[in-house]
Amino acid sequence: MRPAVSMPKVSIIIPFYNDPYIDEAVMSAIGQTYKNVEVIVVDDGSTRHQEKLTPYLNRIHYVGKANGGTASALNYGMTLATGKYVTWLSSDDRFKGDKVAKQVAYMERTLAQISHTDYDLMNEFGAVYETQVAPKFHSAKAFISSLLDGCMINGCTVMMTKQLFVNMGGFNDRLPYTHDYEMWIRVVLAGVDFHFVNESLTIYRRHPGMGTVRHFQTVLAEANAVTNLYRHALNALIARLPG
Fold first, then answer.
1. In whole angstroms, what is the distance from residue 56 CA to residue 146 CA?
2. Could you give the CA distance from residue 118 to residue 125 in angstroms, rounded to a whole number?
């Protein structure tokens, strides 16, 4: 039976590199209440923890590639995606069960090309310790202005049409840590409305092994370089906006 037209396919891309939490991420993806999904796990040259995927191989698309970083794994997964919408789940994070259903419903209703949502925080043991932590903005101008201070968008809360991803040319795989930040800036500079779904639908894990903790100074320098690259264009856009 063909899916109803109101249930477009969603592709969930999970980049994976030696992450002991990968099974939790996959379980949250295949356990969505929204059933018209495909889960694509891109093994970015892992040497550990692949056995955690064994129980799920008949429910996911598991593909491998040489190690090239998160952006390259995402780009590869996106080329394989067959959904109208694409979304990214880090291998150490989790989607709430109704994440896809609620975000698709919002995007179909509003005809949004891209949206992000609120999210919760959990620790290395999976215990949620803070909820609804996404920054909130009173206007598009305030939201776009915030991009001059860094990335205020959690990449794993983002859902976009695959067509938008293709139009934007994918993530910049020369940016190991800020490929998402750079992409969101390009999206707003292209004049695309970046919608916010004011509900917590993702659980983001903070733990000692995460790259943004282990390589904090490198991440900060890379983010500053991205900001400076787009500062003039962002300021020009902000000056044109009301409010």
1. 39
2. 21
The C-alpha atoms of residue 56 and residue 64 are separated, in whole angstroms, by 15
Determine the Cα–Cα distance for residues 243 and 240; give it in Å rounded to an integer. 10
Cα angle at 160 between 157 and 162, to 5 degrees?
A: 140
Q: How far is CA 176 from CA 29, 72, 102, 118, 182, in A?
A: 24, 9, 30, 24, 11
Q: Where are the beta strands (DSSP E) in the chain?
A: 10-16, 37-44, 61-65, 85-88, 94-95, 114-122, 128-130, 159-161, 194-205
> In the chain, what are the domains?
10-240 (3.90.550.10)
pLDDT, averaged across the chain? 94
Express each pLDDT in 2-42 by its tens digit: 444 579 999 999 999 999 999 999 999 999 999 999 999 99
With beta carbons less than 8 A apart as the criterion, state whether 89 and 156 touch. yes
**And the tokens for 135?**
């920054």
Cβ-contact 97, 179 below 8 angstroms: no
Cα(131)–Cα(118) distance, integer angstroms: 9
Burial class (CB in 10 A: 0-12, 13-18, 19+), 191: exposed
